[in-house]
């Protein structure tokens, strides 16, 4: 006679199989640690969080991304290529200019003065990403999308009226990179690298007279309190923030998880790319700075812009050649693409 409730042996076997299935399902679920050195208040941080949400959604919960903002894992940006290569962390937000010790050529992919019209950025973005992917692959790191930074106006923010290169000749200028120091040096203008956090004090105390800075976000560092005048020079050549995953971590993923990761990364890339160039945003930002009391001077002339660009490209080429064969190849590839536009 059949026992509808089943024998103890049958029930035990069924329970074992059920537990084994649950165990295997849980084993298939993977969580990856993602390092970001950016503060959680940055717009890019919100995009990383959205990326993590999309990965979870697209993988039906099989893959989770644990984001650690503001360097919460205690990892140093300068060491990130080695850290990912060794599998000490699964993923990271990568910015090519951070790795001058281990991969100096990556700093030569893109440089200030590269573009004179914001629209040029989108036209060469695929070339730039391809070169970064090539460079990071040497460290066993694969790129799965990223954040395309907005293209902001770059201007000279000064305590006295300045809107020509000639008027800059007797001024001391704050810049953010060695490439820019070399660029202004070629123009006979004194420039020095001063970290953003020290820029306000340097202007206030007269260490510098002007700041070369992203005009659109100048109010976030209160430049209107220590400078009165601004003149537009060129659009920011903004290197993208890339989502890098170590090959070790990638090899642990099944097809569904990998597809979810790649689709989520590309979605963030495409969405941020679509909004990177926004003339209306820049015009509104300029109006807001005027309302804060900044006097908007005429833009630098086309002639001055071209003089600046020529110096920037020369300094860029020198930097690339010093970085070796890859640096020269990156420089030649990007400048050729720009010249063809």
Secondary structure tally, helices: 12
Q: Which spans have pLDDT < 50 for at least 5 consecutive residues?
A: 1-27
Radius of gyration: 25 Å
Strand order of the largest sheet: 7-6-8-5-9-11
Portion of residues within helices: 40-55%
The number of distinct β-strands equals 11
Order of H and E elements = HEHEHEHEEHEHEHEEEHHHEHH
Helix/strand class: alpha/beta
Q: What is the overall silhouette?
A: globular
Please state roughly what percent of the residues sit in beta strands, choosing from under 5%, 5-15%, 15-25%, 25-35%, 35-45% or over 45%.
15-25%
Give the termini separation: 84 Å
Q: Average pLDDT, to the nearest integer?
A: 92
Sheet with the most strands, sense and barrel status: 6 strands, mixed
Summarize this entry quickly.
The chain has 341 residues and is α/β, with parallel strands linked by helices. Helix 6 packs across helix 11 and helix 11 packs antiparallel against helix 12. The N and C termini lie far apart (84 Å).
Written account of the structure:
By secondary structure, the chain is of the alpha/beta class. Helices cover 47% and strands 17% of the residues. A six-stranded mixed beta sheet has the order 7-6-8-5-9-11, sandwiched between helices. It has a five-stranded mixed beta sheet with strand order 2-1-3-10-4. Helix 4 (119-137) packs antiparallel against helix 12 (325-340) and helix 6 (178-186) packs across helix 11. The protein is globular, with a radius of gyration of 25 Å. It starts with 7 loop residues before the first helix and ends with a helix.
